[in-house]
Amino acid sequence: MHIPDGLIDLKLSAGLIGTAGAAVIYSLYKLRDALAVSGENTLYRMGMVAALIFSAQMFKFPIDNGTSVHLIGGALAAVLLGPFAGTVVISVVLTIQMLFFADGGVLPLGANIVNMALVGTILCYYIYYAIKQWVPEWLAIIAASWISLVLADFSCALEIGLSGTIPFGDVTPAMVKAYAVIGTIEAFITVALVYVLRSLLSPPEGHKVKQ
Q1: Which of 126, 170, 181, 171 is nearest to 148 (CA)?
Q2: Residue range 9-33, pLDDT digits in tens
Q3: pTM over 0.90
Q4: Which domains are assigned to the chain?
Q5: CB count, 10 Å around CB of 198?
Q6: Which residue, of 20, 22, 41, 174, has the fewest CB within 10 Å?
Q7: Are 12 and 162 in contact (CB under 8 A)?
Q8: Which of these, 1, 2, 16, lies nearest to 98 by C-alpha position?
Q9: What percent of the chain stands above pLDDT 70?
Q10: How far apart are CA 69 and CA 76, in angstroms?
């Protein structure tokens, strides 16, 4: 889902960069309260989740039209960290991948952040929160993870289609079918990791913030 250079129209790229930038700034603003209360603990958790997601996203499976599928990790970040810390983590991971691994283009960075951080993380969190009111949490995690990943994929296909580089009718079926499958895999991986990592993400005794 990392969109390379050349697939997104320049005007659309500029608009998405502005949208992504505003979302990241707002997320940092919302995050400052958590950092003020337990900054070291919060940064510890964000770093651990970022490292895991970074590693997971490096495994890619190419599909048609120059795109690839991979685990996103937005649901994992949203459930473990909350929507705003999760958005910052995904945005940082995408930026590092773009700068040092040429994974995704420079101009489409805004599009990639919109798809995987805004749709895949912030929207995922609120889907998870809403569903959790009616079903067990594990089922809410699975549902929110799958739904948000498919929506993020559709957003990516829409951006490519609107840019006119690949017909919408060609790129959408290829990507949606692929992510409907990988979304199921990610959903079950996510729910397992959430329950394992909740205990592991408690910082070591020496790193706990003194009250």
Answers
A1: 126
A2: 999 999 999 999 999 999 999 988 7
A3: no
A4: 10-203 (1.10.1760.20)
A5: 11
A6: 22
A7: yes
A8: 2
A9: 85
A10: 17
